[in-house]
Amino acid sequence: MTFHPDTLPDLKGKVFIVTGGNSGIGYYTVAHLAEHGAHVYLCARSAEKGTAAIANIEKMHPSANIDLLQMDLTDLASVVAAAEHFLARETALHGLVNNAGIMATPFAMTKDGHEAQWQTNYLAHWVLTAHLLPLMLRTAKTLPPGSVRVVNLTSSGHLGAPRGGINFADPSLKDGSPWSRYGQSKLANILHAKTLHATYGPGSPSARSGEGEIWVASVHPGLVETNLATSAEESGSRVTSVFSVLRMLGLMWPADKGSWTSLFCAASPDMKAEQSGAYFDIFRRFAEPSWQSGAAKDGELAKRLEEWTGELMRREGWVR
Ligand SMILES: NC(=O)c1ccc[n+]([C@@H]2O[C@H](COP(=O)([O-])OP(=O)(O)OC[C@H]3O[C@@H](n4cnc5c(N)ncnc54)[C@H](OP(=O)(O)O)[C@@H]3O)[C@@H](O)[C@H]2O)c1
After folding, report:
1. Is residue 80 within 8 Å of 112, Cβ to Cβ?
2. Which terminus, N or C, of the chain has the lesser number of Cβ atoms within 10 Å?
3. Residue nearest to atom 31 of ligand 1 (CA)
């Protein structure tokens, strides 16, 4: 892929939401969208960090139109409240970038009763997406195909998911490793994108019946120098040594470049309908083999995960 964010079109009049927008890949995703005229909602759990990030971007691009949308993905009530706040203010949503994440953190349960990586990386983004889908479909209905998109950040780390992909009996994986918990959550991001594509993508029943077409992608951004590695390092994960070696070999990309694949999938006119539903990895290094086999391309697993998640989130009252 030879995409560069400078090739993005004028995005004036378009509205985007980017989770984890105060740092790393998400920060540059917000910055480039805003630079091209989009109205961007930058999601952050810390109002202070979110406001500082917006101020920094505005320094670079004084005409940037960015609003803070505060949500803590470990607190599903705050995710629902943020979605409702957004829906009360906006009449269109052109792009949702489910970007925020944590990696290989020690075992912890959220106050909602889910394992922290599973909820932060997957469940909370599933809930956010579910609340925003009706507006995205309404937006898509009146516009040409490809005008509305969802991007799920995943990782080649989905390779670390447990045997069978998702442990439905114990999704907290309390007897697993921090890396297997990360892998399972990142595999779920891919399967979620697959389901969204099957339901709303080109050729889907929704698209054919005129109910709205949404293009979807899952993105492994590459190996990118961000706080993600730092937080894993602080938790004493073995990933630490891997990142140190990659850094020494110059194989880590700067955070700006890490945003480019997300930007291509969220807003580039060069993305093609037949690319919706795909797993994007500009490096073609680590992710390709896993994509060719196993759980990440298992349509039945995607369906089972969707049913399981929908049933659980409805039972807990996070979606209707
Ligand atoms: N960096 C890489 O090499 C790499 C490789 C593969 C995939 N990825 C994926 O890329 C995505 C972005 O990560 P990054 O590398 O840019 O890392 P990052 O710099 O650590 O950014 C992660 C973002 O997620 C936010 N976040 C974490 N927990 C949250 C919570 N409970 N509620 C709300 N926001 C929360 C962080 O907010 P705080 O600042 O408040 O913590 C931060 O804004 C992740 O999904 C990651 O899995 C990254």
Report:
1. no
2. C
3. 73
- Give yes or no for a contact between 30 and 4, defined as CB atoms under 8 angstroms apart: no
Q: Which two tokens stand for residue 164?
A: 């069978």
Mean pLDDT, the chain, whole residue set? 93
284-305 pLDDT tens trace: 443 443 544 588 889 999 999 9
Question: Which architecture does CATH list for 10-315?
Answer: 3-Layer(aba) Sandwich (3.40)
Ligand 1 center–CA 100 separation, angstroms? 4
CA distances from 240 to 229, 231, 245 (A): 7, 9, 9
Tell me, yes or no, if 303 is annotated catalytic.
Answer: no
Q: Which among 186, 200, 257, 279 is annotated as catalytic? A: 186
Task: Tell me, using a 6 A CB cutoff, whether residue 74 lines ligand 1.
Answer: yes
Ligand 1 geometric centre to CA of 203 (Å): 32
Q: What is the pLDDT of residues 180-202, one digit of tens each?
A: 999 999 999 999 999 999 999 99
